[in-house]
Amino acid sequence: MNSKNVPVTIEELRRKQPRFEGIESGHRACLGCGEALAARLVTEASGPDVMIANATGCLEIFTTPWPESSWRLPWMHSLFENTGAIAAGMESALKAQGKNTKVLAFGGDGATFDIGFQALSGMLERGHNVLYVCFDNEAYMNTGIQRSSSTPHAAMTTTSPPGSERMGKRHLKKDILSIVAAHHIPYAATSSVAYPSDIRMKVRRAMEIEGPTFLQIHSPCPLGWGHDGADSIKVARLAVQTGLFPIIELERSVLIGSMPIRHPKPVIDYLGLQQRFRHLFNKKDSRAIEELVHIQALADHNIKHYNLRGEGVDTMDSDGADTVRRGGMRWA
Amino acid sequence: MNIKLTRGGFAYPGTTRDYKTGTWRIQRPEHEHRRAPCHAVCPAGEDPQAYIALLDMGKAREAWEALVSVNPLPAITGRVCPHPCESGCNRGQYDEPLAIHSIERYLGDQAIENNWDYPVTAPVANAPHVAVVGAGPAGLSAAWHLLRQGLQVTVFDEVSEAGGTLFTIPDNRLPREIVRKEVGRLLHAGIHFEANHKLGRNFYLSELQQNYAGVFLAPGIMKSREWNIDGVTPRDLHEGLHLLKQWSDVASLPEMKSAAIIGGGNTAIDIARVLNRNGVDTHIVIHSSLPDPEHPSEDDMRAIPREIEQALEEGVRIHDHHGIKRLILRGEKVTGVEIVRMRKLPDDNGRLHRVAFEGTESILHVDQVIPAIGQVIDSVGMEHLLAGRSSFKVDERGQIAGSDNIYAGGDAIEGNSGTVTEAVGNGRVAAEAIAARLKQQELPAFNTSKAITYDSLNMNYFEPAARAVQFILPVAERVGEVEIESGLSPQQAAKEANRCFACGNCLTCDNCWTLCPDSAVLKTNDIALDGSFYVFDYDYCKGCGLCATECPSGYILMRNDP
Question: Does B559 touch chain A (CB under 8 A)?
């Protein structure tokens, strides 16, 4: 304890923190966990008047080691495959009771892209007033880093190992946002844990909307991606700045906004930090070079497709959106 | 928590706070203040990062108080210092360095305008009394720091007004009014001033040693160095410094149409600009080179590059790499000089010496030759301390070698660069040493810690922003005694302060607080004891190091957990 540094005790200080935190300290996430940070940021922006349906996955596991819980919000653990349905039921029940509490549904990419997709689709189609947040760490991390349909092309997972036959995952990352948006929902957006103010802004926006909304947050997994926990934000930021993870907003399936990239960075800056891509840096393997060029082409395609290339300096672009000021005003 | 197990699949509520994830930790984040480069290089010892932070918080007066706790003459140094702080500024590697000198000047001017009192309490009646000789920047700085240490001080000067060499700087660069106001306010803080008291004439060193508990000498170098060409000096010779003083005191100059000034220091540039403004066709002859900002060299002219640039703009002609070969006289009056190209070249032993090149001679038709080749100490009354040398030899605390606790500073000490800022620094160091001796306290060691480098900062969190520029009078309007550069507006100063990276210190940006995945960084509503605004909760900190990587100003370091 470092309480000699402040006139009050740490405990007192903790109680006086000028923000709402839906997740308490003491959770069992790994060092530098992007998902733990993203989930806390979402609850900070949503405020306390929410209920959460949480799919099976890392977030569920590390926040609720029996008999403890990190949640300071009403929280329900659903199965992998039915988060959408559970959230829909909670919302209907609250509605029947005449309550305005917003229901949030939390799931990882496995629960969202693959296993729980059918329930999610049903929830969206029925128009439930739920904000579904997908913490996208691009594989089944909790069960031991198996590929999901969100795992990016050429990434190594335990079920997509590189070798003589393949260079990591053969297939492409599923474009879940377009699929979700195709349900003609009022709001669907992506965000990244590297831009907390962007997350907050989008959560607030979604909270105001009556109807199904969807937010996909890119959250690095130091263990699964093979990078230092201290670099989580750096990695997440590079995913945005290279164009590999576009930050966009869709309303009724129409693109209405995007975070411009001031200076697009080469994808190797992003890939080189992560062990899951290390086979791409084997200079003796011609397939490695081909895959690097392929991934750069995917980034270039995103930049062109979503028109991400900024025009000069913009305070809300990929370089400006995280600018700090004395007094912390940036994060408001 | 006392957990009561139940038969069903539920537990009594308890939060994960019961489990201290801090036990996982191998390394812990710690706040560590590291010196900003501006602080490390300042000859006066200022910590610009600290006072700029206060200004950025909107606390201009506190900023000025922090500033004068080191340098009591900011309105003056903000105008005349060559600001090595800005050359060192880490922001220079990002876009442009902070305009630290403009902020310093702004704070100094604000203090004068609002008449803020110098922060000091009057010494007790029986406090030891220290004598300071010379009321130039070194003497005034020493007096101020002695006063801050709770001692009584008397400053002696041979002329009627305190300021010393500051009055030889022309008004266009440093208005007399500013010197008078700032020095006057400083004396008013509780320094006794004895005007018209010259050492060796009105009083003697031995008397000072008898009557005072300590002595600090800052006589400056007010006597021009002797000059001749092959033993010849023109009859109506005027020395640069003498002319400057005359101009400053009575605003008149001897009749002349054209002049060749010899020397490349600030005196040469100052007098050249004064003459040029008075319609004299002005040449500077100097054997060293014009500074090139891209390639600084040992052989550059010693004057401040900004001043050289402005002199050239105004039409002063500088003949660099030239020396005077011969005076062309008519009777004893100068009608011209023969100049020749010179270069510094190594001899067989690798030692540099100047070589004049035959066949490159040319004639400058001028009716005055003005040497500005430097000054020397007026040794009257201090002969035995100087022991034949032309300057005082002092140790790192300013004590004169071989003397009985006599300290010295300013231009009169050996190896001094001749800037006001360095004199201010000398004065402070010596004053602290004198005070420590009188109070029989241990002197803290000099802070020699390395400045934090650009690579230790995280540039992702900053945006390019243009440097504040002081308004500079166009050449055509630089007439009379109008000050050429004007100060910043409060808005400009605030904006400029906001550009500071806060290298090695807490920027209060909330980054660590926002980005900690474990909510193990707590925000305080006031400054924590380590000078930051945040506290690590080591009960829950897992030691991931994310806060250290993302700290924009390099204030968080990861250390092995004890």
Answer: no
